[in-house]
Amino acid sequence: MIDLTFFRGIWNRINEDDVPALAAQLAYFFLLSLFPLLIFLVSLLPYLPITKEDLITLLHDYAPGETAHFLSNSIEDVLRKDGALLSFGILATLWSASNGINAVVRAFNKAYRVSETRPFLLARLMSIILTIAMIFVFIVALLLPVFGRELGEFLFAQFGLKSEFLSFWNALRWFLSFFVLFTVFTGLYWIAPNKKLKCISALPGAVFSTLGWVVVSLGFSYYVSNFGQYAVIYGPIGGVIVLLIWLYLAGFITILGGEINAYFSSKKENC
What we know:
- This protein has 271 residues and is an all-alpha fold.
- Helices cover 82% and strands 0% of the residues.
- The protein has one domain (4-270).
């Protein structure tokens, strides 16, 4: 049961583990991983049933306005270059993104009060596997919103379903995207810490982080669109500033989810 003790305990953990500084570190690695990931995804476009416009539309749906505009311009720049970027994109994405996962692992180990005792190669291999899984999930999450409607219309036509089904499916496909994000967080909180955990122990943090990512992204996007004047204040780098703040908030929520799981694990061990 969540009470005042829970909020006091989480607040103490935020201060003791210096979560804001860890979130800033994680945002830095997120930023380093983002552009190789964009190169990788854009290089894959000829082999996937999606277009550049689909990718840009997804960015505008999920990212704050200034950030989406900045990333859209980056995609356009990549597309104007030669097509020999795929292998570079794969290697750069795996290396830089696995550094981000390593930062997550260190933050979770700190939350659970454990040290990293796994061999370097094993820890790096785990980070790369988690990175590949996250890239795969990202692509699935991209395909589902873009082509979910087409799939629903196909099922509607083939099986003679009522028109209400299409409305239900349009809502369901967004829920499936939400579920994919929840699955990623569950696996991350379960596998990343250097501590033997049950899968169920990762659920509280996964629920919090999934909801937190959605709420913060939507709320921050609304704020930037209606009240933020980053472009006016910072000029051309306004999009970068918005991107960094967005990544910082995402990193903070991710680490806080791990702290929530560690708090409940500690309470259970002390009972």
